[in-house]
Amino acid sequence: MKIIFLGIQGSGKSTQAKLLAEKLNLPYVETSQLLREKREGADEDAKKIAEAFDKGNLVADEITVRVLGERLQKADCAGGYVLDGYPRNEIQFQNLDDDIDRVFYVKVSDEEAIRRLLKRARHDDTGEALKRRMELYHRQTEPVLDNFRDKGILEDVDGERTIEEIAKDIAARVDDYAEKHAG
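Given the sequence above, the corresponding structure tokens read:
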């Protein structure tokens, strides 16, 4: 099963993606973590990634698509995966596998997302960078949701509940989907 989690930064999508990946025994793949790891290198991509992160911009699509593609080609992803935070725009959507089973959109208000993000205190979570990333999300990522909605695979999830309530809700939806598509 190939599942994607989308939501504004601070929505809790990563928490839910990890929980579901564990439940389904599938690899958890987070694009921002792959890019953070790649940033530690000494090549040109690493410099471009660091610059984008520091300014609160999205990493260039060609780099993101390449880094993710390399990860999804690994043997552990052959039976499916849980993908966190990708695609972030139309170009990335066009470079996505056609056989995605479900997309969970974890929805929270901007105010709730900011409140959560300021609590986690990561060095790239400055007020200005957070504001920029949220603007980018609304402008570039939200329109991609309509593509998934049109395909009939988008599931809206209320992200302003407890972690346990959300996880139970998502697990039930995955079980229903699996039941309907078994065999």
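The domain at 2-32+79-180 is CATH 3.40.50.300 (Rossmann fold). Try to locate this feature in the token string yourself.
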